[in-house]
Amino acid sequence: MLNKLTLKQALDKLDKKEIKLTEVYQDVEQAIKELNPSLNIYLTKNGQALKESKTQQDLPLKGLPIAVKDNFCTEGIRTTASSKVLDNFKPVYDSTVSSLLKKAGGVIIGKTNLDAWAHGSSTETSDYGRTLNPRNPEHLPGGSSGGSAAAVAADTCIAAIGSETAGSIRQPSAWCGTVGLKPTYGRVSRFGVIAMASSTDSPGPIAKTVEDAAIVLNHLAGYDQYDGTTSTQKVPDFTKFLGKDIKGLKIGLTYLDIKGLEPIKAYYQAVAKILEDLGAKVSLVKAMDPTLAIGVYTVVQRGEVSSNLARYDGIRYGNDRSHFGNEAKRRIMLGTYTLSKGYADQYYNLAQKVRTLFIQDFNRLFKQYDCLISPTSPGFAKKIGASEGSSMFGELEDMLLEPSSITGLPGINVPCYHDPDTNLYLGLNIVAPMWREDLVIRVADAYEKATIWNSWRNN
Amino acid sequence: MKNYTTIIGMEIHAELKTQSKMFCGCKNDPFGAEKPNIYTCPVCLGMPGALPVANKKAIEWTIKLGLALHCKINLFSKFDRKNYFYADLAKGYQISQYDIPFCYDGYIDTSEGRVRITRIHLEEDTGKLLHKTVKGKKVSLIDFNRSGVPLVEIVTEPDIRSATQASEYAKKLRQIIRYLEIGDCDMEQGGMRLEANLSLSDDPKLMKDGKLDYSRLPKYKVEVKNINSFKFLEQAINFEVTRQQKVLEQGETPVQETRGFNAASNKTFSQRTKEEAADYRYFPDPDLAPIRFSEQQIKDLAATLPELADAKALRWQKEYQLEERYATQLTRKRSKAEWYEQIWQSAKQQKLKANDLAKALVNKKIKFKELSDQPKTILEAYLKTQQTEAVDPKELKKIIKQVLSQNPDAVAKYQAGKVQIIGFLMGQIMRELKKKINPQLVKTEVEKLLKTG
Asked: Which contiguous run of DSSP H or E holds residue B262?
């Protein structure tokens, strides 16, 4: 059952020649064969994966199979963004992320399902059917990177790549009980990622452990000449921050007082206790109301979406606009409206100003705290069908993550509770100042190792 | 008959001749491309996930143009998305500048007055649509070689008052762009595109103390596009002025619209009505960080500006005592001007009059290879033309006397006071001499003989 290995375990065992790469592929392919028909994780499988892996074995990721969200352009492999508009689109170029993965020795095993165009937090609005939560198939995996989170949770890959616009890495990670790392905006190149909200889109790893996520991030982070919003900030070795204690770190616990979170409050108070036992100082903190971020995010994102989707006219590639799903159409209309003359000031421009207030609020908080924690999601993974008829489903589910997404901060989700009856998880969201992935990794790793919630560390 | 003032503002687009396009590394050579769609990439084709990265040189050249036109420079600037659909617009939006253009508040002086520059901004060009019939079917083909080419847009205040001033303004702008070596402005190649906004006013209070009273501008304006030459620009404006005047005289207001110019019929024609400005839903492009300049960076760019044509012509008049007409003509093109100046400098060194040389060169009295001959060669050729042969004073007197006797009427006129007639006599004498004699010498002798009879 080599598909159940973490990335670190697989790399070590391959190094020591305890296992063979072909054996890993055998088990991963077998898992995909068994689970994909029902869980609908992969939209496209890379038939050449095993063959490609043979030449990758001397590179850092040793040819191991990585799942990639289908909004990343992958050269020669169909890329749809889960939309019928791109049903037949095969890019002749790689996204920077897939190119870097390959350079590091990773092999793309397949393209995972998402909410069409990343518009959602359930993976139910995919034009290719919903993905089911491997932990409990009556429930949703979350979204929009639901396919990637499910791929990891179901051990149908060794690690995965997702992208977050406002919660799309962290929330499905929480619902599927995996680790999801959203880097600082500008840390990882967006070139070749089908744009949703250009000012917040952040590609990042979804993995089995914090260590795995740090390993993958090492290969993805850095300045890219093809993305003018990437930073020349020095990229540290993120694995250096693993296994460090968190003594003396000042951690602010936010959002617990938000209406609707009462059922899960206790779990996070328990988290706070663990962190204190580990030596950190945890205090309840009043941050700017995250429900205000919903308006900001909704307006800014849909404005940018309405512009970013304009290129899909079917003239140069893909199918014409009649193939857009309902959610995409809704967002295009709303975004166009909020940018229109006479309305832009009321909506788009005003939203951007409130966004600045969120930036200022975080700056204020980070003067006193090293990092901030909160629940990732207002509750457990919802049941199938939950997103239907609810056009603001995503925004409400992602409410606790939107403030850090719209301000470009790095954040991570680690599992922090497992319900033995439903097999579903709750997730802990850890957020730090821009460029401080070291802090989120350090705290997340310490918490993960001190608790029993990570299903790969605690089998 | 009322007196109408012509009110014209111009919008001119010029392609910058950077090596690569505005937001990607594709070759910037749309006109020279052998085939359509060979200078393309995911970025300028609007492929999924493609992102723009700004061309620094294009930005610097835009600032330089602004400085050359006496503009103020926005130290903080940005790119905005201009959203609209057209088949040649790959992304469904054009990256342009909305409210914070790189340059603003400048001017160009013309012989008919100053034309204020409202703004200069930088944007990307669209692809090109070609309407053809393929296999019996009418199709529209799109060539994206031009998609993403950097364009500067120069907008004026409505300060232009005539067709000739419009043409002069456009020519001056072209000259400056060429002098800066940032664009070729070849109109046939689409390297420079002219648009004029025209209206007429009969309001005597339109100008107040020499300044335009904006509150008194007409409530309409007509946009004229598709003008492919300076000559057509003047013709289009003249046609429009006549057309609008007729409408106004009937007590009606000309329709606010866009009109094209038909060179064959020499008329403008209606293309589409512009009841109000289109809504482009401008917002700052999130893919491009804002651009911040320091005062020092602008100063450094200003220091790289070459001397422009007007300034050079003035300096030549001062420094080399060149006549204005020669100075203007020979400074028209920068590379040529710089070559000519080498000649003036050599002339100065050799204590020759630069103007004499200019005159000789312009009138082609010397055979020369512009731009390649060395100043030394030119000077030698010139001096050769000035060389005079010696003449036997006896022979000179003989010929002079001969010509004077052959032209008694002329002699009589001279002695009656019409001294200019000496020119005619000189001509005859020089012809007879068949040698290159110093004309001053001859003239002195002729005058002597004429006086003494």
From this structure: strand B257-262
Does residue A288 contact residue A258 with C-beta atoms inside 8 Å? no
Give pTM, 2 decimals. 0.91
User: What is the bridge-based pairing of β-strands A425-431 and A371-375?
Assistant: antiparallel
Q: Give the separation between CA A265 and CA A325, rounded to whole angstroms.
A: 37
* A274, containing H or E segment: helix A265-277
Residue with tokens 């840390």: A187
Which residues of A are catalytic, by number?
69, 144, 168
C-beta separation of B185 from B191 below 8 A: yes
Q: Which range is least confidently modeled, A80-94, B145-159, B333-347, B416-430?
A: B416-430
Q: Is A73 on the interface with B (CB under 8 A)?
A: yes
Peptide bond into A144 cis (omega under 30): yes
φ/ψ of residue B80, rounded to 5: -125, 155
Alpha-helical segments (H) within B69-220:
163-179
Distances (CA, A) of B116 to A450, B113, B155, B180: 71, 10, 9, 20
Which residues, including other chains, have CB under 8 Å from residue A390's CB and lie 6 or more apart? A396
The residues near B392 (Cβ < 8 Å, ≥ 6 apart) are none
Q: Which two tokens stand for residue A211?
A: 């260590």
Q: Is A138 on the interface with B (CB under 8 A)?
A: no
CB distance B286–A229 less than 8 Å?
yes
pLDDT of B275 > 60? The answer is no
- Rounded CA separation A5/A152 (Å): 11
Cα dihedral across residues A169, A175, A180, A183: positive or negative: positive
Separation of first and last alpha carbons in chain A: 13
Say how far apart CA B52 and CA B46 lie, in whole Å.
Answer: 10
Q: How confident is the model at residue B274, as a pLDDT?
A: 61
Instruction: Supply B282's token pair.
Output: 């401008």
Nearest Cα neighbor of B115 from B63, B48, B64, B70 is: B70
Tokens encoding B347 = 């002339």
